[in-house]
Design brief:
This protein starts with a helix and ends with a helix. It has helices at residues 2-22, 32-43, 49-72, 79-100, 106-126, 134-150. By secondary structure, it is an all-alpha fold. The chain has one domain (24-150).
């Protein structure tokens, strides 16, 4: 019995250590998948729709910073997955708001989306159009426009 308890406690400790070291990982780092798993587990701890929107807004900021990181580091390989994760997160926010009639949260979300649009436009303005990956950043911008229309 002591061996089982020790094994369980050791496993839990190792998972917590992994999550600690993964919390600031970037898309091109080995711990990034652990971070994403941690984010997905955290969503389940958010009970109310408002808490979920607030958490997804924080994730959206992280997703935006990831897109900026991918651009800054010229990690074109990650442009597709990073921009898709960004757009999916923004869409999740809109779906929760619409499904739960959270109209009081719309101004904050709209402001966040507008700020991100400015940042994405800055990326696009300096992205080399000879590289086809710029289209995925453009898609993220287009999705924001679509989602903003759904919040009217």
């Amino acid at each position: 019995m002591k061996n089982v308890l020790f094994s369980v406690l050791t496993a839990v400790f190792m998972i917590l250590v992994l999550m600690f070291f993964a919390k600031d990982s970037k898309p091109d780092e080995s711990m990034y998948k652990v971070r994403r798993l941690q984010e997905k587990m955290t969503v389940f701890t958010k009970i109310s729709p408002q808490e979920k929107v607030e958490y997804y807004l924080s994730l959206l900021d992280k997703r935006f910073m990831e897109m900026q990181y991918v651009y800054d580091k010229k990690l074109d390989y990650f442009a597709v997955s990073t921009s898709l994760r960004y757009s999916a997160t923004a869409g999740e926010i809109v779906e929760i708001i619409k499904k739960n009639n959270l109209s009081a949260m719309i101004p904050e979300v709209r402001e966040n989306f507008e700020n991100h649009k400015t940042g994405i436009k800055n990326i696009l303005d300096s992205y080399p159009y000879t590289n086809e990956k710029w289209k995925f950043f453009q898609d993220a911008l287009n999705y924001l426009d679509l989602y903003l229309g759904q919040l009217e």
